């Protein structure tokens, strides 16, 4: 059974916040611990409440979601962050993922789809809508990096782990499937990202889907 997820909402749109609150009430094990009406307040509440999950708006009047994200990472909060936004811009998707978000969701998603996505994030997966994958893939193609696992110098074990990342598995799930410790998986993931010159596991997943399944 999943542990209770303490959730903080950071969004300057009152109506959308209300909708998120109602959605969270439908997810077993999710507990709303705070609502912030902007980035500055959100950062302060995050430091005080230390939630398990933050639902963060990208475009806010005082601080952008990316600035809040940088602030969270600077104080080393072990909090999962999901960007919830109206922007389907490739630049925004890439910037958020490279900033270290655990999910990138669009505000016009169907409630059922958002509910499933939040549950997946809480279970340790990184989630972005399928329709945004092509934007991320195009951004990766425009940059210079290895074009195959062989060219990247990935070991057999690293290649197996990359395949599991592409399937959407969390480190814990990969460890179970390959019968290795979760900590060992984390080390391998770091090596994979370095060898592929990528900064997030979502980028690695998109790269793998494009290169390994053609």
Can you characterise this structure?
- The chain is an alpha/beta fold.
- Helices cover 53% and strands 13% of the residues.
- It contains eleven helices and five strands; from the N terminus they run βαβαβαβαβααααααα.
- A five-stranded parallel beta sheet has the order 2-1-3-4-5, sandwiched between helices.
- Helix 4 packs across helix 6 (133-141), helix 6 (133-141) crosses helix 11 (201-212) and helix 8 crosses helix 10.
- The longest helix has 15 residues, at 182-196.
- The termini are far apart.
Observed structural traits:
five-stranded parallel beta sheet; alpha/beta; 11 helices; 214 residues; 53% helix
Overview in brief:
This protein is α/β, with parallel strands linked by helices and 214 residues long. It has helices at 14-24, 39-49, 65-74, 90-99, 111-122, 133-141, 149-152, 156-166, 171-178, 182-196, 201-212, and strands at 5-10, 30-36, 53-57, 80-85, 103-106.
Describe the secondary-structure layout:
Layout: E1 5-10, H1 14-24, E2 30-36, H2 39-49, E3 53-57, H3 65-74, E4 80-85, H4 90-99, E5 103-106, H5 111-122, H6 133-141, H7 149-152, H8 156-166, H9 171-178, H10 182-196, H11 201-212
Helix pairs in contact: 2-3, 4-6, 6-11, 8-10, 8-11, 9-10
Terminal residue distance: 37 Å
Radius of gyration: 17 Å
Mean pLDDT over the full residue set: 86
Helix/strand/pairing category:
alpha/beta
With helices defined by DSSP (H or I, 4 residues minimum), what is the helix count?
A: 11
How many DSSP-defined strands? 5
């Amino acid at each position: 059974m999943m542990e209770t997820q303490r959730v903080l909402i950071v969004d300057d749109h009152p109506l959308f916040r209300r909708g998120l609150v109602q959605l969270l009430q439908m997810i077993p094990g999710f507990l709303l611990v705070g609502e912030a009406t902007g980035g500055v307040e959100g950062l302060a509440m995050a430091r005080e409440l230390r939630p398990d999950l933050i639902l963060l708006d990208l475009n806010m009047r005082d601080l952008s979601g990316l600035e809040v994200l940088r602030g969270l990472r600077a104080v080393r909060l072990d909090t999962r962050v999901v960007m919830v936004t109206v922007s389907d811009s490739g630049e925004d998707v890439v910037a958020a993922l490279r900033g270290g978000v655990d999910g990138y969701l669009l505000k016009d998603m169907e409630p059922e789809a958002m509910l499933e996505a939040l549950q997946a994030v809480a279970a340790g997966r990184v989630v972005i809508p399928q329709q945004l994958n092509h934007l991320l893939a195009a951004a990766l193609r425009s940059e210079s990096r290895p074009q195959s696992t062989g060219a990247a110098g990935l070991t057999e074990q690293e290649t197996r782990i990359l395949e599991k990342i592409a399937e959407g598995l969390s480190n814990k799930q990969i460890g179970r499937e390959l019968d290795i410790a979760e900590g060992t998986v984390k080390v391998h993931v770091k090596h994979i990202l370095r060898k592929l010159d990528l900064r997030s596991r979502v980028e690695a997943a998109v790269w793998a889907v494009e290169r390994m399944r053609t």
